[in-house]
Amino acid sequence: MVNYQGENVVVKTLQHVEELRREKAHLSMHRREVLTLDALRGQPHIVGMLGFCQTTVVTEYHSDNFLSTIFGLPHGRSLGRVVSLALDVAQGLQALHETAGAIHLDMKPQQLLIDGTGRGKVNDFNSAHLMSVDRVTGEYCPANAAKPARIVPWRAPENVAGKPLSEKVDIYAMGMIYFSLISGGVPFPDQEAFERAYEAKLRPEIDPSWHKGFTRIFQDMWHQDPERRPSARQVVLRLEDLQRELLVASYP
């Protein structure tokens, strides 16, 4: 982070790497991030890019993120606030998938920032994959995973298994993040518990007191079968409906 003309901004600069193969990989990640951010300029739920050059990208700075929100809110957090943040980042994800044609691939609470107005924004696209389109069907082609991903709660099963990936890996990750938003904690108490749950294809326990409409949304998002997970657009529509329902309920 640096201060530029009285405003804090984030400056990411590639460091020189002696090993040529690693340096090329880092350059490739930098270019993907710049291409993705450039395609998403002006999107209100994407962290804005302020400028870039061959090895540097400058973006907005926001000190707050979903991780601090998850653990910082008091018990009994407002459902309205949870749904509002969930909708913000779902809209960002929809823009990423539909406008940029990209998969984030590294979605986790730290990557979801909150600006000074309280609006959620999707951030950090250096792991993004730009999807290719099938010329016959017009649909996006699955991406081949370079290698099986490390087992963490936000990673979809197909990502951990090293199978072909689609934008639905982001949907799975966001579903787990929504669970954390409403629960105020991580999906599983420790790595060992998560690995056991992953092997048994289990999901975190749902508190029966939580709003059924919201829990159904994120339960659909973390479905084992990627094809049965909703799209980002569908998640946005369902959250908008829920937000309207909550608004009506607050004004009898």
TrEMBL record:
Superkingdom, taxonomy of origin: Eukaryota
Pfam families, per database record: Pkinase
Entry keywords, A to Z: Kinase, Serine/threonine-protein kinase, Transferase
GO molecular function, one term: ATP binding
Residue span, Protein kinase domain: 1-247
InterPro entries for this protein: Kinase-like_dom_sf, Prot_kinase_dom, Ser/Thr_Kinases-Pseudokinases
Gene3D superfamilies in the record: Transferase(Phosphotransferase) domain 1 (1.10.510.10)
PROSITE patterns documented for this protein: PROTEIN_KINASE_DOM
Transmembrane segments: none
Range of residues in the leader sequence: none
Annotated protein name in UniProt: Serine/threonine protein kinase
Protein's organism: Ectocarpus siliculosus
